[in-house]
Design goal:
The protein is of the alpha+beta class. 33% of the residues lie in helices and 24% in strands.
């Protein structure tokens, strides 16, 4: 708990530093006037991206110039998601967005200030949504370590996929004796195929953290395969 507190305090201190020592607070209208410079905002922070002008003026990323398109940075939907409202992102995606901001924009471009919008108020202070995002990112930093530890304890399945004519076969298997392939999703992570021991205490093979990787695959099979074709599919295992 103490380490989490320090992480949050550190994140907040970073935001305060950005705001207190920043240059100004831009309105959306003001930022739009810098489209041809270009200025680009991400996570509510405005950058002079003159060094990357070839990307933001004529290089196919002009939709980021003069606005905050934080959501599209993550989703890749450059038609519908050029917005600073990132409420639809999960903690992993938010952490990815923060990495883009810190590792790319703060290192490559010139910081100019903040944008009044989803992340910052008209006074340049973090919004309630922004503070909640920082808490989620802090949680993701902790959960990522736990997921890595879980992956060491329960390694990924061996997976194969091949196609012949109109038939595709996918298979997952575990080589360790007594281990079976399970779809495992823990600590905010995406489902992965993990090898779990059948005798694992305290784990129900019917809960959301441990279910057969392929639906209806027998619970005690060390491998399962799914055969797909244009009209039907079938399951098997051993």
């Amino acid at each position: 708990m103490l380490s989490r507190t320090f992480l949050l305090v550190g994140a907040l201190a970073y935001v305060v530093k950005v705001v207190l020592f920043g240059k100004k607070v831009y309105t959306r209208e003001e930022l739009a006037r810098y489209k041809d410079v270009p200025y680009v905002a991400i996570m509510g922070q405005v950058f002079d991206c003159t060094q990357g002008k070839k990307y933001y003026i004529s290089g196919g990323y002009d939709f980021f110039a003069g606005t905050d398109g934080s959501l599209a940075f993550v989703t890749g939907d450059f038609e519908n998601n050029v917005t600073d409202n990132v409420s639809s992102l999960d903690q992993i995606q938010l952490a990815e967005l923060q990495r883009w901001t810190n590792e790319t924009y703060h290192k490559k471009y010139t910081y100019k200030g903040v944008l009044h919008g989803y992340f910052y108020t008209a006074n340049g202070r973090p919004t309630h949504e922004h503070l909640q995002i920082l808490r989620l990112i802090q949680k993701e930093q902790s959960d990522k370590v736990k997921r890595e530890e879980d992956a060491k304890k329960y390694p990924n399945c061996k997976a194969k996929s091949f196609r012949k004519k109109n038939i595709t076969t996918r298979s997952v298997s575990c080589s360790l004796p007594g281990y079976v392939p399970r779809s495992r999703s823990v600590f905010g992570g995406q489902p992965r195929c993990a090898c779990l021991p059948l005798s694992l205490e305290g784990v129900s093979f019917h809960d959301k953290e441990s279910i057969p990787y392929f639906p209806d695959c027998p619970l005690d099979n060390s491998s399962c395969f799914l055969i797909l074709n244009s009209s039907s599919s079938s399951l098997g295992g051993r």
